């Protein structure tokens, strides 16, 4: 930008880019090495598994092997599963998890902020929420199955109870830990209680809430899968249950791989959304 | 009629007692009598931690006095009024709002239409020298620039009373002098009454019409000094004048004693 840069002596301009270049090169080389080592590690683990299984050092019937798992996924992809097409199973599980997640997050944020702002509510409900949180909530899944039947509703319900608590606690904490200066400043500037909640408490609690969103989507998937596993008509969890029932270990692994891909894609989407929302934060601005 | 002739701020025997987390009682200010005239610039100095800031929160309506009365424009303070502006010691800009949106915040909270608020905010941003920074976020600014945003966000609401709680204490010395000059420039156009809390005696003399010395905590007014230095002032040059040095010596005699008491108490706590 400044004229000095253009008129700097040749000796220096020759030197500086040189150094910068070699540094950039070193950084690039390091990236390649790390990526190559990662792939190598994966290949080694899968190769070892395959070899041990083929040599019958480990029982291929119980432990299966990567090639069988791939064959299973391929068969599901091309010929569909016993329950219908693979896409339909994924879509069912995703739909249940997503719906449960959205309901759980909405309820968690709403309750968390309400209790964070209204001390009476926090005092009233605090102990009950603690008790409910201490129940291992996954045992509710069979009850939901009895209440809501084999359809998606029972899975959505188990996803909701798993998602609600982490989101609730983070939203509650987030609205409690709002910088008191910001609240005082907003009140001086003329904000009503409602405006303080909507324009100061909620924005400053969002980073707390987002931390819980990452974890809780995983919980939503667990809720949906376990619900399906216990009893369903469609979904990846049912696929796991059926594979287990027919002693098809490759099928169980294949379902796991599919789930991992689904979870990773969801995580990626969430990170992307977070970057967009937190443009105002120093760490994400790219400076 | 009486409201027009009444002083801007009046504290009558105001006391404030807080309950500490350990269950004890802590008296921050006691028996505070102080009158601040309209358009007057008053600096409040005292030892650190003596309760100067509490005085401001009482006037602002953020806190109520435990005893006594606080009057603004002749009326008892009940809650946060719309005539008061407050510049805090710490950063109080909203980090998720852009610079322009921060300056607009007060007007929008008070229901001013968006277009009008934007226009006024732009005007004040230009006055504090941040015209090109509208779309930045606070974390992209320096500490001095963030203080300018805070000043613009306060002045844009046209406050009759301006409360400042060690506003420049976090800035480096040069930026601080610059900001003090700018504050004087901005203030001279408004006719607002200012209460400026600081522990820096030089700063208080350079800025104010009146310097109020507080006692070691619980704070109460010890002595009030009138400063007759001519305006407009430039803080860097005014502090070199012989009259300034003379006033400084006079006030320090009063303030130094309270500082010593505070220090001895601190030492006793440590021991």
From TrEMBL, chain A:
Q: What membrane topology is given?
A: Multi-pass membrane protein
Task: Identify the taxonomic lineage of the organism of origin.
Answer: Bacteria, Bacillati, Actinomycetota, Actinomycetes, Kitasatosporales
Which positions, given as ranges, span the membrane? 32-52, 98-119, 208-230, 250-272
Q: Which Gene3D superfamilies match?
A: MetI-like
Give the family this protein belongs to, as stated in its UniProt record. Belongs to the binding-protein-dependent transport system permease family.
Q: Which residues form the ABC transmembrane type-1 domain?
A: 90-270
Q: Which organism is it from?
A: Streptomyces cellostaticus
Chief location category: membrane
This one is known as ABC transporter permease
- Record keywords: Cell membrane, Membrane, Transmembrane, Transmembrane helix, Transport
Enumerate the Pfam families for this protein. BPD_transp_1
Q: PROSITE patterns recorded for this chain? A: ABC_TM1
TrEMBL record, chain B:
Record carries keyword Glycosyltransferase = yes
Q: Which UniProt keywords apply?
A: ATP-binding, Glycosyltransferase, Nucleotide-binding, Transferase, Transport
User: A single Pfam family, by name?
Assistant: ABC_tran
The record's listing under PROSITE patterns reads:
ABC_TRANSPORTER_1 (PS00211), ABC_TRANSPORTER_2 (PS50893)
Asked if the Swiss-Prot or TrEMBL record annotates the protein with the keyword Glycoprotein, the reply is: no
Which Gene3D superfamilies does this one have?
P-loop containing nucleotide triphosphate hydrolases
Q: Cite the InterPro entries for this sequence.
A: AAA+_ATPase, ABC_transporter-like_ATP-bd, ABC_transporter-like_CS, ABC_transporter_ATP-bind, P-loop_NTPase
What is the name of this protein? Mannosyltransferase
Give the species.
Streptomyces cellostaticus
């Amino acid at each position: 930008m400044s004229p000095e840069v253009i008129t700097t002596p040749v000796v220096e301009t020759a030197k500086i880019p040189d150094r910068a270049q070699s540094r950039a090169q070193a950084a690039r080389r390091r990236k390649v090495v790390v990526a190559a080592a990662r792939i190598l590690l994966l290949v080694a683990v899968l190769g070892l598994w395959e070899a041990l299984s083929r040599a019958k050092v480990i029982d291929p019937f119980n432990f299966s092997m990567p090639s069988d798992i791939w064959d299973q996924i391929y068969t599901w992809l091309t010929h569909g599963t016993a329950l219908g097409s693979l896409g339909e199973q994924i879509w069912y599980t995703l739909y249940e998890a997503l719906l449960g997640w959205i309901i759980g997050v909405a309820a968690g944020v709403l309750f968390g902020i309400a209790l964070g702002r209204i001390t009476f509510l926090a005092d009233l409900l605090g102990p009950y929420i603690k008790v409910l949180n201490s129940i291992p909530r996954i045992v509710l899944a069979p009850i939901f199955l009895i209440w809501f039947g084999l359809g998606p509703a029972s899975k959505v319900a188990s996803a909701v109870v798993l998602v609600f608590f982490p989101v609730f606690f983070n939203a509650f904490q987030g609205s409690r830990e709002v910088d008191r200066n910001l609240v005082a400043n907003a009140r001086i500037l003329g904000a009503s209680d409602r405006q303080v909640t909507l324009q100061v408490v909620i924005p400053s609690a969002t980073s707390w809430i987002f931390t819980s969103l990452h974890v809780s989507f995983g919980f939503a998937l667990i809720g949906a899968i376990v619900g399906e596993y216990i009893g369903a008509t469609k979904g990846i969890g049912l696929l796991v249950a059926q594979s287990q029932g027919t002693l098809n270990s490759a099928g169980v692994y294949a379902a796991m791989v599919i789930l991992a891909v689904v979870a990773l894609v969801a995580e990626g989407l969430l990170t992307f959304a977070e970057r967009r929302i937190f443009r105002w934060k120093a760490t994400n601005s790219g400076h | 009629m009486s409201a027009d002739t009444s002083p801007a701020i009046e504290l009558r025997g105001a006391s404030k007692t807080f309950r500490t987390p350990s269950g004890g009682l802590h008296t921050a200010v006691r028996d505070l009598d102080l009158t601040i005239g309209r358009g007057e610039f008053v600096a409040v100095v005292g030892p650190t931690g003596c309760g100067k800031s509490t005085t401001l929160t009482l006037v602002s309506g953020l806190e109520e006095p435990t005893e006594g009365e606080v009057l603004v424009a002749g009326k008892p303070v009940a809650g946060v009024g719309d005539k008061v502006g407050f510049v805090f010691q710490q950063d109080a800009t909203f980090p998720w709002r852009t610079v322009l949106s921060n300056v607009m915040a007060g007007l929008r909270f008070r229901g001013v239409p968006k277009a009008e608020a934007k226009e006024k905010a732009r005007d004040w941003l230009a006055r504090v020298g941040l015209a090109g920074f509208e779309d930045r976020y606070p974390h992209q600014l320096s500490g001095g620039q963030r203080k300018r945003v805070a000043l613009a966000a306060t002045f844009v609401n046209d406050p009759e009373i301006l409360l400042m709680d060690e506003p420049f204490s976090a800035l480096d010395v040069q930026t601080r002098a610059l900001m003090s000059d700018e504050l004087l420039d901005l203030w001279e156009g408004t006719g607002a009454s200012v209460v400026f809390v600081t522990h820096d005696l030089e700063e208080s003399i350079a800025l104010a019409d009146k310097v109020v010395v507080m006692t070691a905590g619980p704070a109460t007014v010890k002595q009030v000094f009138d400063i007759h230095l001519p305006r407009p002032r430039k803080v860097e040059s005014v502090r070199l004048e012989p009259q300034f040095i003379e006033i400084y010596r006079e006030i320090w005699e009063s303030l130094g004693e309270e500082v010593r008491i505070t220090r001895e108490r601190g030492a006793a706590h440590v021991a």
